[in-house]
Design a protein that fits this description.
Blueprint lengths: L2 H24 L30 E6 L10 E5 L5 E2 H7 L4 E2 L11 E2 L9 E3 L2 E3 L11 E8 L6 E2 L8 E2 L4 E8 L9
Parallel strand pairs: 1-11
Antiparallel strand pairs: 1-2, 3-10, 4-5, 6-7, 8-9, 8-11
Protein name: Lipoprotein
Keywords: Signal
Organism: Pseudarthrobacter humi
């Protein structure tokens, strides 16, 4: 493949990702059917989030099919009422990094994952996330919210504006080539 074709493909992917984010912000929340596999998470911090109900907000970080589990965790963050998702992640000791172009609007790395030198394997080969602009449309972190009694929904807002409440769950899920398509139940 020539350099021109590669650049054209990359530009098309970025444009598609941008359109995807724009459409997600304008659309009604989509209810998803949970997948049957459980997130690869490790219990830590505030309470027994993985083993029982959470009186606050359950925070889950799942590196999904990325296979770089350093970011994975599941914790319960105590909150009394609606709280910015960014603050809940901070309390859960989840560190997010945006991109150069979109420093607070997008999530490029979670707890250092994917590492800048990590080769992400996908259908078309390998890719290294540089966190410059839009993440690749085939490999990215997505933000999900689950009400106390309901199904996972793709977040319609970013971390800076999304408010979460006691009883809800918040998940950052890394997807490669569309897998996993949604958080586990």
């Amino acid at each position: 493949m020539t350099l021109t074709k590669i650049r054209t493909a990359a530009a098309s992917s970025l444009a598609a990702a941008g359109l995807l984010f724009a459409l997600a912000a304008c659309s009604a929340p989509a209810t998803t059917t949970p997948t049957t596999s459980a997130p690869a998470s490790t219990a830590a911090a505030s309470s027994s989030a993985a083993s029982g109900p959470c009186a606050g907000v359950k925070v889950i970080v799942d590196s999904g099919s990325l296979k770089q589990a350093a970011a994975d965790k599941s914790v319960c963050v105590p909150v009394d009422g609606p709280t910015p998702a960014s603050k809940v992640l901070e309390e859960a000791d989840v560190k997010t990094v945006g991109t150069t172009q979109y420093p607070t609007e997008l999530v490029c790395r979670v707890n250092g994952v994917p590492a800048a030198d990590f080769e992400i394997k996908h259908k078309a080969g390998t890719y290294k996330e540089e966190c410059a602009g839009m993440p690749a449309a085939f490999a990215y972190w997505s933000l999900w919210v689950k009400p106390a009694a309901g199904a996972w929904e793709y977040a319609q807002e970013g971390l800076a504006t999304l408010q979460v409440s006691p009883g809800q769950s918040l998940e950052l899920l890394f997807t490669v080539d569309g897998e996993p398509a949604a958080p586990a139940a």
